[in-house]
Amino acid sequence: MSAEGERLLGGADDPTITVNEEGHSSLFLVCEHAGRTIPKSLGSLGLPAHEFERHIAYDIGAEQVARGLSKRLDAPLVLQRYSRLVYDCNRPPEADSAIPELSELTEIPGNRQLSESQKRQRVEEIYVPFHAQVSKLIELRLNAGRPVIFVTIHSFTPVFKGITRTLDVGLLFDRDRRFTDMVAPLLRATGRLDVRYNEPYGPTDGVCHTLNVHAGVRGLPYSMIEIRNDLIASESGQVEWADRLANVLRRAAQYIERSTATAGV
After folding, report:
1. Structure pTM?
2. For residue 187, how many other CB atoms are within 10 A of its CB?
């Protein structure tokens, strides 16, 4: 655990990785739970190494799918490199789950009894710069008159607290469902997939924070895609899902762009 007054990250460390910043697609990709890195100043958070292979530490396969989508779509992508056990960038600073003391059924010793300044340090060094980078790149595009469709890529564990989840993919939204409603039928048409709205999580679980902060407040079309992680744990699965989602998102974006252009006439 970092001592009071010490920096959490080294001076050259950046919580964000930006891929294809100048991509030409209207789709703008984000992956908040891409990494499982722990800052050196925090050691292992009191956990054995095998815990960082689990969903509690990061979204298994999500980074690889997101990078595959960025390449196939020529879309910008912002990744968050640190484990959600350090700070969950899809949660606001006031949420208890932003720095979890318990993840699923696993206690996180390094997150217990943190002072307010230690919590604030994680907010200021991880959460704030990550969301600032996302906002900056969106604003650059909007100011240049370029359309933006906001999509976040996640994965979920097939078994959560002993309960098996059978769906293949969840499409999440809060108050704006227009893009999700374009994506759902196209995705279902790609195979025998169990595709559901707002499962295995939804707005009441607090998981739409990034969507609302960046897309909701700007009135941008958006969707959050949750893939069951056993489907994308292998390289072949990651390629399969990047191919599938690239075709779906490209077509859904074209529908949105055409309808926007028609409405503007």
Report:
1. 0.94
2. 22
